[in-house]
Write a structure and sequence with these properties.
By secondary structure, the chain is α/β, with parallel strands linked by helices. The chain has 2 domains: 173 residues, Aspartate Aminotransferase, domain 1 (Alpha-Beta Complex); 247 residues, Aspartate Aminotransferase, domain 2. The protein contains 13 helices and 18 strands. The strands form 5 sheets. A 7-stranded mixed sheet has the order 4-14-13-12-9-5-8, with helices on both faces. Bound molecules: pyridoxal-5'-phosphate. The site of pyridoxal-5'-phosphate has 15 residues, from helix 4.
Length: 428
Amino acid sequence: MTTDNNQTLFERASAVIPGGVNSPVRAFKAVGGTPRFIQRAQGAYFWDANGKRYIDYIGSWGPMILGHGHPAVVEAVQKAVLEGFSYGAPTEREIELAEAILALVPSMEMVRLVSSGTEAAMSALRLARGATGRKHIIKFEGCYHGHADALLVKAGSGLATFGHPTSGGVPPEAVQHTIVLEYNNIAQLEEAFALHGKDMACLMIEAIAGNMNFVRATPEFARRCRELCTQHGALLVFDEVMTGFRVGLHGAQGVLGITPDLTVLGKVIGGGMPLAAFGGPRAIMEQLAPLGPVYQAGTLSGNPVATACGLATLKEIAKPGFYEALSAKTRTLVEGLKAAADAEGVAFNVDSEGGMFGFYLMKDKPQNYGTVMTTDNAKFNALFHGLLDRGVYIAPALYEAGFVSAAHSDEDIAATIEAARQIFSHIS
Ligand SMILES: *Cc1c(COP(=O)(O)O)cnc(C)c1O
């Protein structure tokens, strides 16, 4: 009998960390089984505590777009570390990163750096309320914007009513100004603005959603969001924490051709270090402290090691042809998965943009959270564990997107498709 080091570590972790993890989805609750404790990673792979290798399709939930341990990034981080971990005073590297971000995201004229996507989305929301002097916000069912109180909310009983908290510890008052709507539902959107438009501070959206599997806003829906915000004086906030520099060099806004007022970034811009950002037009951003009345601050904001990592990452992905190659690779993966499922008679569909993808154990691509959640759980779990056994690590929940990195080889992708084919032959 060999011991399972993952199980041993999980038991040890569970004694001292709630649920044994520091972020809930890592616990494998949705799929069952023992979470893999990762020892190290390189390129497209990581290795668990038993020394088993996995092809990694999570990439730290998006940031590792170059794969793990890219030499240029490692070098930049090593150099930065030797110059000091944190100063609590400004650095030139923060300006360089800000300039690099603004050059690639034309809707942003100024940017503030923070340490997590949650913090960035929460701050963007405060800024939107401060800049408009209004309280109400729209969010969509299935979109995730981090765990600020006002955003941990599900729909109320009707459009005239506001949301209910989805987490313990969030008082109803904290979500009483949040309206939750169905994604891609134009009629609901129009009705909400007709009822509450004059009090609407902002509409926050993942324009390509990656927290309910992979669901795109339709072009008409995205356009209507823009039009209604403009018409009612509300700010359109694109949460691009996941899509920014992931679906393309100019994010979901570049893919859709829509200019938001505020953009929230994270994940890729830190290259695996704790770094996120939010930004927009100068007149709005100047409402932030120390210039304006909207308070926002952070001890580790613009951290010199994190900014070095982010800058080195952005330098690589801005090279010509990067996204063309990444997109082609991702398409090869999802088309291969679909062909394998089709051959085995499994109802299956796929979508992808840049280095982000979704697959669905259903015939049609879902348009909203409700449809995603009709996925056959047992089939998904069989696929997840079958792939895991075969050394392929996908997100341990059917409502998460997947990520391909520049380090994934043709052989990795072929091996993934072959592993999936073997499982499809059992679950059709
Ligand atoms: C990951 C994510 C967040 C939260 O970012 P954290 O760094 O985990 O706090 C917010 N919005 C979206 C769209 C995300 O994918």
